[in-house]
Fold this sequence. Notes:
Layout lengths: L2 E3 L6 E3 L1 E4 L9 H13 L4 E3 L8 H10 L7 E6 L14 H15 L4 E6 L8 H13 L3 E7 L3 H13 L7 E3 L13 H8 L2 E2 L21 H4 L1 H6 L3 H17 L3 H10 L7 E3 L4 H7 L9 H8 L14 H6 L3
Parallel strand pairs: 3-4, 3-10, 4-5, 5-6, 6-7, 7-8, 8-9
Antiparallel strand pairs: 1-2
Amino acid sequence: xxxxxxGKSGLRVSEICLGTMTFGNEASVxxxxxxMDYAYEIGINFIDTAHNYNKxxxxxxxxxxxxxxxKEIILATKVFFPSVQGVNRExxxxxxxxxxxxxxxxxxxxxYVDILYLHHWDENTEIEYALEAVNTLILxxxxxxxxxxxxxxxxxxxxxxxxxxxxWSVPIxxxxxxxxxxxxxxxxxxxxxxxxxxxxxxxxxLGAGMLTGKYLRGESGRLNExxxxxxxxxxxxxxxxxxxxxxxxxxxxISPAVLAPAWVKSHPGVTSILxxxxxxxxxxELVKCxxxxxxxxxxxEISALSYQPPSPTDREPLEIYRLRxx
Length: 326
Ligand SMILES: NC(=O)c1ccc[n+]([C@@H]2O[C@H](COP(=O)([O-])OP(=O)(O)OC[C@H]3O[C@@H](n4cnc5c(N)ncnc54)[C@H](OP(=O)(O)O)[C@@H]3O)[C@@H](O)[C@H]2O)c1
């Protein structure tokens, strides 16, 4: 297993981060334990969960498993989405952050988490309040670092600047969606992360399973079961890209379920990729991506199977002016 430094934190995390969203739902407790045991055995030291996953059951499963492995594990959870009913039980208000986080700690059976992610931007909460709440937890030793997920580039930058203004802990990493099907992050977020030296831990690297090619083979999975994901990947362009990608992978003699995460992992801005599965068999296949090192040419060939997201401004690149002699 390779380990990389996460942003400027000094933390060394495995290049694979174990995603746990299926634990307690598609993956039974027994299967989740098998996946965690295997991940630990092969050197994965980075586990990702969230307050809302399966209404808290996922955190409980991890809490029961972790035991004396806790010191070796970089444990991350998130706050924003609700796991219980209540008008003030969602979002980034101080109240929700403090109450939800205490619940997460209890379920995870630990005194602290390494990273607490703000799971989503909250348009009703001034980011100062959210950061103040997390910094209180940092001062209490219950959180070591802040992460942010699903923020746009300006929201990430604002969060960093507000943290600096108050001499608070600056976020060390981001968790964006990124795959051959969803490349928006390449436009602003990945260059921003590289400039600010933020760790990057992408999720949905398989396009929720689509890029494995299983739906082309008539198999079933999350995209048959979950309306939100059907909507996210429902545009016919994703099917077209998947068909081209699966054909390319077959010609190279490599499983698309291995090549898809390998492509995300190859981006120089990416630190550790999130891999999640409903059973150990799926997970064992995914982690084979560790053995794949794409050349620049291969990365470009695979990228060309998809679309290039438009640049952040409509102005032509400077090279054009240089070629014209300004
Ligand atoms: N920050 C956020 O907002 C956010 C959002 C989502 C996820 N996450 C994190 O990222 C982790 C991974 O994300 P994800 O699960 O959404 O994305 P993903 O990696 O794109 O999809 C994983 C799904 O693909 C299918 N799959 C996996 N391995 C397979 C194989 N070998 N063959 C065929 N199908 C396979 C499984 O679903 P089926 O068997 O049902 O097809 C599995 O649950 C989560 O566990 C969670 O920790 C974070």
